[in-house]
Specification:
alpha+beta, six-stranded antiparallel beta sheet, 6 helices
Length: 207
Amino acid sequence: MTTQETRELLGDRFIPKPHFSLVRHAIVDAPVEQTYAAARAIDLTEIHSGLATAAGWLRELPARWQSRRAGPPRRPTRLTLDDLDAGTDWALLGEHPGSEFALGVAGKFWRPVIAWRRVEPDDFAAFSEPGYGKLVITFGVRPYGAHRSLLTLDTRVLLSDPPSWLKFRRYWRVASPFALVVHAALLRTIAQDARRRALDAYRREDG
């Protein structure tokens, strides 16, 4: 009998016991290499699901109202995960190249205008400032047979104290259906790009 080493999930490293979680899977008609590349290179400005777009627009309304005198907020023409890490409060917490990576942020997510808080990877697991929650999203890719992949989105939330937990629970009742739609849009977009990459690779090999 052979044993296979089990690598620690990044979600378990940063939020091993979440208060709230949402996990979605998709079987992708592309090998792991192309599926992981598609996930790692995703451009968030290309996520255009009707309800997901509406949910994002509604979530931005308070910030838009606050900044109405300064004119409409600038919309990025490109927003990759590396762009998030470099220019926003989100941090790329860790990566198992070729199989999994994780993004995280702290914040008061239940507020009409979210109070975001960047927490660096080395400090993320221990961060527990009262009044905040921590959010981790991991993208995982694993083989599913010889030529397909299992793509997983794992979202975990941990609150720092009971009052924050109560506030987030009320918020989550409303937000979780929209989160499901966003997950589905992300999975669909990554799967489409992965299939395109796999087809391009096949054509190069065949030609």
